[in-house]
Amino acid sequence: MNSSWELIRDYMRNINFIRHMYKILTGFAGFMYDYKRFLAYGGWQENMNDIERRNYQQVYCYHRLEKSLSFKERNPNSGWRDVYELLNLLNIAKQSNSIGYHDKASKQILEKFIALPENINLEQSQSIKKELEKFDFNSNDIHGAMEYNLSHFKKGKLEQPEDFFLTRYSLREFQDKTVGDEIIHRAIRLAMKTPSVCNRQAWHIYHTSDKEVKNSVLRYQNGNRHFGENIPNLLVITTDLKAFFSATERYQHWIDGGLLSMSLMYAFHALGMATCALNWSQSPKNDKLLRKIVNIKPDHTIIMLLAVGYPDENNKVCLSARRPFEEIYSTLENR
To answer: Where in this chain does the record put each Nitroreductase domain (predicted)?
Structure first.
């Protein structure tokens, strides 16, 4: 009897060892795949003739000026490094003859910065003003900073926030009805208020309601069994690696993409739509296979998929317990 038990125990040890080694090796393969993608597409390359890379760099710079403009009591010596960096990028844009949205935003913010009372009479401000006159493009939107009082802030206050947050569930059965583009676009516009590192907004969302395309995508996602074919609308949420410049930002695309994903789910909930988050922690093989069959840009990292649809009158959802509050909360203290 003891001999049989020892054989079983040895067998389980071997199985566990093989399982652990498999996890380590596949994890390493996944890390290497992500690293190669960062090397191939990351913004560290700083090719400012690439309009997308240049625009991300501009947002990085002009958002720091926006923060400077928004302080009630600002340091009058701050921001000049970003001013000259933006001026250089605007010259590159003009030479390459590829003017983007953020080129126009940069120009407007520079104009506002040099017009500050403490800057307007400075010699460098006059010199920069002459340089800006060379750029014959302007933004139709307003950038920089604005007045925002308490009454504006309170418009977002919910009388019963629990009624909103605690009524969102993941739904896996929907009405046999496609959600129209108007609602999809409105939810995305609402979610775009999501914060992102230096306001780079490096998101891109792919959408389809075509059954063949949906099924092609869902074939490589292993969490939609038994309901995937009946999903009315499918979003693929991605972030652009070009927006992230340094090794310290190697995970930032996942963070920013995750923030947007949750905002999207709450935006759809606010519009009366149901959603189900579909995980995309996939193997390099599946990531590559998906990119072969649908038009996802190579520099876009897939964060997750999102099923969207109309809820039925009566539905069943998972009654998933929330962890005890004490397990997820601690007071931060010095050691």
So the answer is: 167-216
